[in-house]
Amino acid sequence: MEFQWYPGHMTKAKRQMQEDIKLIDLVIEVIDARCPISSRNPDINGLANGKLRLVLLNKSDLADKSVNQKWISYFKDQGFYCVELDSRDRKNMKGVQATLDEVCAAKFEKDRKRGIKNRPVRAMVVGIPNVGKSTFINSFAGKAVAKTGNKPGVTKGKQWIKLNKSVELLDTPGILWPKFEDNTVGLHLAFIGSINDAIIETRELAMELADFIKETYPGALAARYEVNEDLVNHEIITEIALKRNFLKKGSEPDFDKAASVLIDEFRNGSLGKISLERP
Description:
Blueprint: H1 8-20, E1 26-32, H2 43-47, E2 52-58, H3 65-77, E3 81-84, H4 93-113, E4 121-126, H5 133-141, E5 159-162, E6 167-171, H6 183-192, H7 202-216, H8 220-225, H9 233-243, H10 255-267
Helix pairs in contact: 7-9, 7-10, 9-10
Family: Belongs to the TRAFAC class YlqF/YawG GTPase family. MTG1 subfamily.
Function: Required for a late step of 50S ribosomal subunit assembly. Has GTPase activity.
Subcellular location: Cytoplasm
């Protein structure tokens, strides 16, 4: 399977971000903890060059906890602030706030030496589609200030959000990049729902996912669906259909429905805490 999805509004959004970055002190990059490298737009490093950087390892509740800790060390070693996060839970915002306080203190001291007083930290929130940027902003703000949706492409334009006297956030649309050099990146983004499902071959994607889970987290499929993991991927999905009683007319297993359920249950965590990548 090959994956490319770069609708026209993303080009426009990238140009706008290049203009807005001039106003920004801090870039907050929201990534998916299950695949931190695949879910990072490589263009952001160039765009944010010279700016303070905070990486939010979002959806960490869906990823392998021991692997999350390795990723936090990885990003800190690169000079980034990094926080593990489930943006749906407001209690998780304490760690973000503590890190922002640290960032703000350093910036305010720098401003003070230059004779600048009471100018808030301006932070741009960036990330690819469907990593939870808007959910994070709403949780952090304590109210619904950004549109959310469980699909890519919900945020279409920029929006300034004043959190408090110290911090202003600029929400930006999720943007990908024109070409994935490594097809594994596209595969991982399809697994987590950052590529429009309408252009995805669900059957093939589910078989790739079954292979990955069987090899990397043996026992997870058997525990969830009571299937024999010694079977090949298409046989496993057929068995899922039979176990779940997904049948078409004539008692034929509904392969497509079973494939969709496998993908959905990976995405929502029903299959367990699964990381697609390790540092």
